[in-house]
């Protein structure tokens, strides 16, 4: 699967995802306002952590080892079967825990028990979401990008329908529960694809457990847990810092500019996960690895720079289109947020080397250090400069991260 071909499929999927995200964001912004954006961000950070525990982060290993053993059908079958058993067990444990502690989670996350039913319902859908993640990893590892794109597009379109419907029926709670029903539709689509594609030569034997495969996959668990915890927790700390000093409205402005970054960078980050992880996992020589990274920089960074410049130029128009006039005070946040996005993607291109080569120690150390530094800089700059300080912190942190990644990954490239 070439980079440009992957980019073509990714472009289609990302375009639909962007439209979906635009509709969802617009509905929340108009109907609920900046406070609603804050609540949605808080909830998404928490369920991201739960989703990570429900899969034990083995899906990254699934992608890596399916790509590495692309000619070995037996090994691929063992990897898929073992991953299924791991995820089945872990998602059941997380599901029961969320259902039991739903009231506690509501109080911790929203400082109110009013959202306990949201977490209670989410608990019943965690297993389905975890299996969707596994199936997507299988598509990715086997380079079945066309079917991965189909599922992503179907999920985005379904998400629009459910989010709009539940938002107008139940308000912010409706937005939070809509994802559950979207996951169910995606799961049914995945089942249809897996059943009908007869040439899909790797079918899991769900009762087959291989300790050797489990050891390989669980090697990614610690890496995934750290990665899956530190970023959502960092955002929660930063959001709470803004709310404590200012209000939920200001936190909503910060969340909104962060959401815009997530949307336009989705194209790039999807390419990195869909193309780069399997590709870098296949490469065994420094010369080839270095050339692949160079190609990535030549193609990816100019695209990111151009997109960021366009967003900065039309930021006021974008705020009007995506949100509402209540969000206009967020426009000063764009400059350093967008510059930080450029640094972030530059660092990610190198960071994927650590994942592809399963360099768990260096990956974990770098993730922890720069997540802590992001929170540190954010606390410092928000107190000194106000909400805009959060974007200063973001920019400085990822500039330093890029420099660090250059030195950390040198041993793989030179």
Could you explain the architecture of this structure?
This protein has 414 residues and is an all-alpha fold. The chain has two domains: 1-219, no CATH class; 236-414, no CATH class. Helix content is 85%, strand content 0%. The protein has 17 helices and no strands. The protein has helices spanning 3-31, 34-55, 59-68, 73-100, 102-110, 116-141, 145-170, 172-196, 211-218, 221-245, 248-282, 286-313, 315-322, 334-356, 360-385, 389-408, 410-413. Helix 3 runs parallel beside helix 11 and helix 7 packs antiparallel against helix 8. It is globular, with a radius of gyration of 21 Å.
Please summarize what this structure is.
The chain has helices spanning 3-31, 34-55, 59-68, 73-100, 102-110, 116-141, 145-170, 172-196, 211-218, 221-245, 248-282, 286-313, 315-322, 334-356, 360-385, 389-408, 410-413.
């Amino acid at each position: 699967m070439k980079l440009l071909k992957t980019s073509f499929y990714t472009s289609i999927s990302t375009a639909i995802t962007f439209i979906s995200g635009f509709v969802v964001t617009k509905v929340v912004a108009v109907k609920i306002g900046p406070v609603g954006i804050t609540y949605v961000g808080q909830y998404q950070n928490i369920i991201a952590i739960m989703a990570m525990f429900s899969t034990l982060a083995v899906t990254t290993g699934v992608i890596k080892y399916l790509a590495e053993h692309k000619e070995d059908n037996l090994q691929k079958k063992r990897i898929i079967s073992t991953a299924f058993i791991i995820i089945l067990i872990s998602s059941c444990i997380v599901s029961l825990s969320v259902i039991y502690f739903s009231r506690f989670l509501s109080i911790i996350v929203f400082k109110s028990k009013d959202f306990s039913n949201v977490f209670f319902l989410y608990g019943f859908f965690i297993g389905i979401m975890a299996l969707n993640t596994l199936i997507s990893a299988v598509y990715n590892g086997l380079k079945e990008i066309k079917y991965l794109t189909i599922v992503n597009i179907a999920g985005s379109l379904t998400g629009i329908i459910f989010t709009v419907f539940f938002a107008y029926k139940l308000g912010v709670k409706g937005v939070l529960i809509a994802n559950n029903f979207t996951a169910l539709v995606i799961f049914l689509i995945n089942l249809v694809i897996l059943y009908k594609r007869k040439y899909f030569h790797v079918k899991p034997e769900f009762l087959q457990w291989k300790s050797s495969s489990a050891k390989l996959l669980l090697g990614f668990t610690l890496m995934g847990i750290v990665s899956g915890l530190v970023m959502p927790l960092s955002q929660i700390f930063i959001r709470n810092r803004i709310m404590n000093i200012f209000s939920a409205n200001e936190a909503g402005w910060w969340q909104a500019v962060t959401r815009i970054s997530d949307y336009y960078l989705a194209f790039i980050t999807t390419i990195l996960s869909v193309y780069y992880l399997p590709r870098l996992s296949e490469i065994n020589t420094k010369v080839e690895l270095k050339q692949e990274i160079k190609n990535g920089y030549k193609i990816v960074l100019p695209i990111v720079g151009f997109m960021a410049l366009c967003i900065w130029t039309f930021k006021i128009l974008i705020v009007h289109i995506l949100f509402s006039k209540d969000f206009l005070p967020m426009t000063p946040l764009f400059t350093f947020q967008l510059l930080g996005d450029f640094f972030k993607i530059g660092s990610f291109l190198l960071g994927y080397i650590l994942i592809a080569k399963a360099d768990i120690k260096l990956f974990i150390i770098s993730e922890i250090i720069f997540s802590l530094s992001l929170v540190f800089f954010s606390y410092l700059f928000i107190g000194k400069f106000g909400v805009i300080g959060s974007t200063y912190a973001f920019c400085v942190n990822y500039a330093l991260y890029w420099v660090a990644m250059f030195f950390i990954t040198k041993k793989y490239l030179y």
